[in-house]
Design goal:
- The chain is α/β, with parallel strands linked by helices.
- Strands 1, 2, 3, 4, 5, 6, 7, 8, 9 and 10 form a 10-stranded mixed β-sheet that branches.
- Helix content is about 45%, strand content about 20%.
- Helix 6 crosses helix 12.
- The protein has 12 helices and 10 strands.
- It has 2 domains: about 180 residues, 3-Layer(aba) Sandwich (Rossmann fold); about 120 residues, N-(1-d-carboxylethyl)-l-norvaline Dehydrogenase, domain 2 (Orthogonal Bundle).
């Protein structure tokens, strides 16, 4: 691809807004699919990013709630909450042309499968976004810490010019972006950590620093990640033997105030991605014969709040 690729971001919240905003700030043609007050603010005053890696203000920014007004783009980044995937991607059909790459930056481990069922395997690439970012207020994305990484690759592990173009564009926009020849493994590596981070920051209502400093909560974090790792291994994913130890060491390097999007949703009384995180570990563990008592506890403890009921 000799020209600059064009982008559509389905879900311009913390994750989508940050990476889409960085691309737009670097001069790429980016259409942000948003709604409500966030959409109205972006249209009126642009999109702002507040980050230790450098603030940005994209004004004007292309934002809409109607993908039909945009038309086909080269790359669609999907960053909606997991329960919105099917409806949001079907609504985004006008963004998808014959050669469009569709890449999920969502949580969970089945996003690529769900996207494939909607748009077809020829469009879908695996991806992960590693970042702590939220909508601070309408039109403003706040990034906590300095971790802002995208890893993407073809699901079959082959080299792909389309995946390469995405990574090159993100790199040019100042994002830590990497190609992977084993994207399923990378997705599971993120999942092992994310399940633990989401569980403990939600259960304790505390960020990662205090969780790691206390022996009891640190031990529970390790148990939750170990169960998730065991489920992945039972599923045939080549996860390293020392992955959990590495993830615990990684947690110690994070800003003490870092939390999870699920903990933020819990605090705001929003719906939780619980069924796609600890809940998914429990379901897969049952199917594969792997015991998951710590994740079962998390699922039971948070289930009364998962539909958006404050607790």
């Amino acid at each position: 691809m000799t020209r600059k690729p064009t982008f559509g971001v389905v879900g311009a919240g913390g994750v989508g807004g940050y990476f889409g905003g960085r691309l737009a700030a670097a001069g790429y043609d980016v259409a942000l699919i948003a709604r409500g007050a966030h959409l109205a603010a972006i249209r009126e005053t642009g999109l702002r990013i507040e980050s230790a890696l450098g603030d940005a203000h994209i004004q004007p920014a292309t934002a809409t709630d109607d993908p039909a007004t945009i038309g086909p783009v080269d790359v669609v980044l999907v960053a909606v909450k997991l329960w919105d995937t099917e409806a949001a991607v079907r609504a985004a059909a006008p963004l998808i042309g014959p050669e469009t790459a569709v890449v999920s930056l969502q949580n969970g481990i089945d996003a690529a499968d769900r996207l494939t069922a909607i748009v077809g395997a020829g469009h879908v690439f695996g991806g992960i976004g590693q970042i702590a970012a939220v909508i601070e207020r309408p039109g403003v994305i706040r990034h906590t810490g300095t971790m802002a990484t995208v890893i993407a690759g073809a699901l079959d592990g082959r080299e792909s010019p389309r995946a390469g173009a995405l990574i090159a564009a993100l790199g040019a926009a100042g994002v830590d972006a990497r190609l992977s020849g084993d994207i399923e493994r990378r997705i599971w590596e993120k999942f092992v950590f994310l399940v633990g981070l989401s569980a403990l920051t939600s259960l304790t209502r505390r960020p990662i620093g205090p969780v790691c400093d206390d022996p009891g909560t640190r031990g529970l974090l390790a148990e939750i990640m170990t169960e998730t790792w065991a489920v992945g291994r039972a599923k045939g994913v080549a996860l390293d033997d020392d992955l959990v130890a590495k993830r615990l060491a990684f947690a110690d390097t994070l800003p003490a105030e870092m939390t999870s999007s699920m903990a933020g949703d819990l605090a705001r009384g929003n719906r939780l991605e619980l069924d796609w995180l600890s809940g998914a570990v429990v379901r897969l563990g049952s199917e594969l014969g792997v015991a998951t008592p710590a994740n079962a506890f998390v699922t039971a403890a948070l289930t009364l709040a998962k539909d958006g009921t404050p607790i």
